[in-house]
Predict the structure.
Amino acid sequence: VVYLAMGYLYGIRFQAKVDPLIEALREELYVQPYDTINWPAQRNNVASVDLYAPHTKIMDFINYVLTWYEWLPNSILRKPALDEALRQIRYEDINTKYLDIGPVNKVMNQIVVWLVDGPDSKSFQQHVERNNDFLWKGAEGLMMNGTNGSQLWDTAFAIQAVVESGLAEMPEFRQSLDKSIEFLDCTQIKTNSTIDYNICYRQESKGAWPFSTRDQSYTVSDCTAEGLSAALQLQHELSFSAQLRRISDRRLFDAVDVMLTMQNADDGGFGSYELRRGPFWLEWLNPAEVFGRIMVEYSYPECTTSVVLALTHFKHHYPEYRAVDIK
């Protein structure tokens, strides 16, 4: 999703008008005059301390071929590719209520929307309205988070800690626990994505819990698992559980259903956001030098452990629901 907006902006050859600020930044950031830099020669010029995943020879060859391809006028592939990229950018904005999966692609999507729809458009204004979800003021000035928060993740673990430590049975914590399950209730994603998840390459989301908030709307396997475990503890394992608000059994079943869709068939493990959608050799085309294992989803022990424990927990209270699948 990050490359969608970057690819679109490069594909249309967008360039901001050079002004004194840009000129000052160029002078500050580069060790030689900007106009003298040979940019193709910098493609693999990465500091060794940052070179975590060097380009493969295949990736270097593709870059070489694409350099010449870029000289072709009126490529028949460019317009449909740009149209599809813009379509997926809009799907991402709509499905996440303009939060996007994180601030990296959000700010890039926002530039695309500003260019295509204009600064006075509703879509651009909706982007602007969600910027504050990521911004905060720290000791060094205005900062931007890597996500719009970790609200669900933190709350689910806090609930489990309070219950398992025995503190939940103390009267002074009862009101907080009642508010906690209210938060779990409102944060659970109750529908699939606004745009059909199949055409925007998303995992099912009905019944899932996100990492942060419901608006962000991305299914996360271990967040769903920890949210379900926390809900089960509050609703079934306290002396006053019957007095707390409740998430319906049907909604708990939805959480189980969505987790079961996320098990990878080859190794039985669970990824973070989705099923593995492509072959491992796609890693040969990884253009990012600083990250590895990013081209496809993988099964992770942390996610798998959370899901297995949550399903085991669920089976204890609901032994009949999808018993064969859970086993």
